[in-house]
Structure formats: C-alpha cells, structure tokens
Amino acid sequence: MNRLPLLLALLFPLPALTGCNIIGAGAVLADKIVPSKTDAQYKGLAGQSVGVMVWCDRGIRIDYPAIQIDCATSIQNKLSTAQKADVKELKDTKFPVPAPSIARYQFDNPQSQSRPITEVAPHLANKTGLTRLIYVEIDGFSTRPAPGVELFRGSMTGSVHVIDIKDGKARAVYDESDVHAAFPKKSPEEGSPNLDDQKVYMGTMNEFTTQIARRFVSYEDDDD
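The structure assignment produced for this chain is given below.
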C-alpha cells in the first residue's frame, strides 16, 4: 500500500510558564511515523473509542507543570494524524475526548492519582464512553545531565499500558516498561552546549511520544 510519511505535531498551545526549571510548551512537536516495515506491538485499537491519560509524580510536575497535558496531547495528536493516512491498526478508531479534558478529570479528582488505573478507568469511561485507555506513567524527566551545568541532553523514561474497559470493568491488555527517549539522539551523555531547556524539553517530549505512538501503528524506523 502506498502511503506518504506523516507529519505528526503537538498542536495544543499552552501558556508560557516562567520560573526555574519550568518550561512553556507552546511550540510545535513534529516527527513522522511511516507505516510500512515494523509491526505495531499492540493492534487492538481498531474500532475502539480511545483516550490517553498520563501520570507522573508530584516532583516532576513541580518542575514541569504542563508535562502530563503535553505528553497526552502529543500522543493523541500523533495517533489521530496517523489515522488520517488510513493505517489499518486505527481503522474506525475514535478519539472522542481531548487529552486536556482527561487531564482536567485527573486534576478535579486528585484521588485518581493514587488509585490503580483499573479502578479509575471505569469511572472515566462512564463519563466519556471510552473502551480503551492508553495510560502512560512518566518515571523520569530531565533536560540536563547535571543540574546547574550549561550542557543539555534530555532524558525521559516511562511505561505504557492499554486498559480494556467493558461492562464497568477494566483490565490491562498491554504493558511495556522502560520506554526511554533522549534528545538530541546522538549527543554525548555529558550533554551538549548551544541548546536551552525549552528546546530540549520539546525535543525530548517529541521523541518519547513518538515512541509511544509507534507501539500502535506499523512504521518504518529511521535513525536521523
């Protein structure tokens, strides 16, 4: 099947934030998913009503207040854009709830942050009609290998789960831990100069969310 490369972008603008280690996230994140060579690792989203939820601990949210919304929105936008290229894994998939609305549910229901996702998902589904929830846990995020040093290299680690919701019950049907992204990809581990926290935040987020999105569609890898 002849398909064009996909331009995947984070399109949800957020107000610029100020303060030490607080990064605004209004810039565009772009990467491509080219469906052809590598099979999707999870193929159960076709025909489902899908939402994206992201969790991270309070320490990360203090430094990067927008990180959950940025991550969830980027993943959902990339999958929605991939669907427009008629990838078979997303045939008839619906994304009825904007990622920021799911983030708002988390903020309005803080108890959801400490409960198992299989308990939270049915309550969310009752309000939204979701049948699958892509649930991402961010374990770590940084824009510099060493705080206070003017060398930059982004690192983001986490895990991804798919929750199947049916008849008021939820179960995990896909789990993967140790998802890791670095930006720039080929920079030395000690970091590189001539960057800044904003650029590294956006680049790292883009690399991580592209890796998550690629779990759900076939793609052609590239090492650029």
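Interim note for the steering committee: Confidence is low (pLDDT under 50) at residues 1-31. The beta strands are 8-9, 30-31, 50-56, 132-142, 154-166, 169-183.
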